[in-house]
Every structure is written in C-alpha cells, then in structure tokens.
Specification:
The chain has seven helices and seven strands, in the order E-H-E-H-E-E-H-H-E-H-E-H-E-H. With 211 residues, it is an alpha/beta fold. The structure holds iron/sulfur cluster.
C-alpha cells in the first residue's frame, strides 16, 4: 500500500529477465544472504511496521514462501506478495497478492533471453487461479501509451478480473524517468478509470538499492 510504512523482504531468484528490471541483482537464486525463516521474521520485527511486502526476484518460485508467510502472519503482520503471476501456490494466508503480469514491453533485447522470456512471461491459467483464489490487485507496467491496447486485450482474455482492482504503473527505474512518464500514465487513468500506481520509493530515493 503506497505511503504506508512497510518492511520489504526480497527473495532471490527470477527466471524472467525483464528488459527494464530494476532489481537485476536479485535474478540469481544465489544472490543476497542465506537466512533462516526465523532470522527473517526476527529482522522484520525490528521495524515498527505492521505491513510486510514479500518481493523479488519472483517469490512464488521459492518453495519456502508458504512457511515464511505463515510465520509472518503468526506475528500479526499484514502480508503482501508481489508476483509476476507465473507460478501458483494454493492456500497461502497472505492478505494481498499484488500481481504484475508482464507485457511485450518487458521482453529483453538479447535474442536468447527474449525467447525464454516470451515463453514464460504470461501464463493465463496461473493468472486466472491467482485472481480466483486470492485478494489481489492487478498492476500493469506502462512504458508508452500504446501499451494500453495490450493491457485491454490481456484483461479481456482473463475474463475474471474485477476492473476496480486494475492499476497502471509507469515504467521507471529512476526519478527522472518517473517524472517524465507519470503524467502520460495519469492521463490514461483519467481516460479509462483505472487506478494510478505510484512508485514512491523511486520518487523518494531514486534508483538507490535498499539495505
Ligand atoms: S519479474 Fe520482476 S524481478 Fe523478475 S525480471 Fe521481471 S521485473 Fe525483474
């Protein structure tokens, strides 16, 4: 939830290789530090925040995720999972599934990677299951205005989307990029009625990596 102080837990590993990914350092499963679930929960509790966001990488490919969510819920945290919607896990006690399906604007330039990305970036069956079984929001990254027709087609294909839960987010890894693209996306939101998703961390801290 934008503006609400939250602790971010970033899990390593993501197969997608999006062109504009701003967390490339988290692509490898070996990235970061190995920590037990108890250590992570202890670390989270050092902060006076009820809200926890589990992000990546792609958290839904991590087999320890259900246990981590359960342990965080046992400490009465509000848990959001950020996912590209490429893998399904049933019955997690999270409060919000923040799903960000990847459009063709995320395909990487390198030929080999582009083929892998194109193959796995959009799994309509998985997206449908996540939407049916979790409290969710559906966030689409907008790079240029013309991306919107692909967003509309994706929503139509999904058939089970609550339009009130759709958000449009400017593609921006830096503050300058965000300031340039945000008005275009805000205008799209005004015309379509979809919500605008702010990238407050980029506005506040530019492209600095958190600790
Ligand atoms: S899905 Fe997310 S973490 Fe993975 S490559 Fe794309 S932007 Fe980066």
């Amino acid at each position: 939830m934008a503006g609400v102080p939250s602790v971010f837990v970033r899990l390593a590993g993501c197969p997608l290789r999006c062109r504009w990914c701003d967390t490339k350092y988290a692509w490898s499963k070996e990235a970061g530090r190995r920590q037990t679930i108890a250590e992570i929960v202890r670390k989270v509790q050092e902060w006076p925040c009820r809200y926890v966001v589990i992000t990546g990488g792609e958290p839904m490919i991590n087999s320890d995720l259900p246990e981590l969510v359960k342990e965080l819920k046992d400490t009465e945290k509000h848990v959001t999972i950020e996912t590209a919607g490429i893998a399904y896990i049933a019955d997690m006690p999270c409060d919000l599934m923040s799903i960000s399906p990847k459009l063709s604007n995320s395909v990487p330039d390198e030929e080999g990677l582009a083929a892998i990305h194109e193959d796995s970036r959009l799994d309509m069956a998985v997206l449908g299951e996540l939407i049916d079984n979790y409290n969710y929001q559906l966030k689409f990254v907008v790079d240029v205005e013309s991306d919107f027709s692909e967003i509309e087609k994706t929503i139509d294909k999904l058939t089970n989307v609550d339009l009130e839960k759709v958000m449009l987010m400017p593609q921006a890894a830096t503050r300058d990029e965000l300031l340039k693209k945000a008005p275009v996306v805000a205008d799209l939101c005004k015309r379509t009625g979809f919500a605008f998703s702010q990238r407050l961390h980029i506005l506040l801290w530019d492209n600095q990596k958190g600790s």
